[in-house]
Amino acid sequence: MLRKYLSEFLGTFFLILLGTSAVTIAKGDTLTIAIAFGLAITISAYAFGGISGGHFNPAVTTAMLINKRISAMDAVGYIISQVLGATVASLFVKIFVGALKLPTNQLGQTDFPKISGGVAFLVEVLATFMFLMIILNVTSKDHGDAHFAGLVIGVSLSLLIVFALNLTGASLNPARSFGPAIFAGGSALKHLWLYIIAPEVGAVLAAYCSRFFLGSEA
Description:
The chain is mainly α. The protein is about 75% helix and about 0% strand. The protein contains nine helices and no strands. α1 packs parallel to α4 (about 70-100). It is globular, with a radius of gyration of 16 Å. The mean pLDDT is about 95.
């Protein structure tokens, strides 16, 4: 059990450290940021997925719990591990950003300064719904493909980030937003509730749609 929780911690740590570093340290454009997050989740999935299943995202864990691929006890342990991994990763990013004499309130946090809260909520629900539909079906025992699941998930995340980055910062993951927000503060922390609730709503919708309409749990 400890091995699974540590794997979730490490996978989420790599995802947030590498992804948000592409924003803050590398100063990447949309494509660079999307590729960084996509490759980070791909390598984490292949490195640690065989131990924990490779969730690295509380929304993924919620969907897996609904579809009975994980126990309630493990789900709680996974989510705690994911949040801790994201938080520690963001702490390191803050240290490195500070060492470069860059603003330490700019840590790759998610926010929606250009659109309304309602539209931002819709974007995060929709993007997470699509992401979870892909994850649940590519990992399905009935019609999934375990050999290519990590690659498909990584490519999917990259494409969804290209879609959503300039709208909401493209979270799709409560832990991904939590870590940077608690250190950056400001508007990102004020709006954190949206980045927790909206991805979870998208995950719940995907879990039921995938199960009942596509037979992912058959």
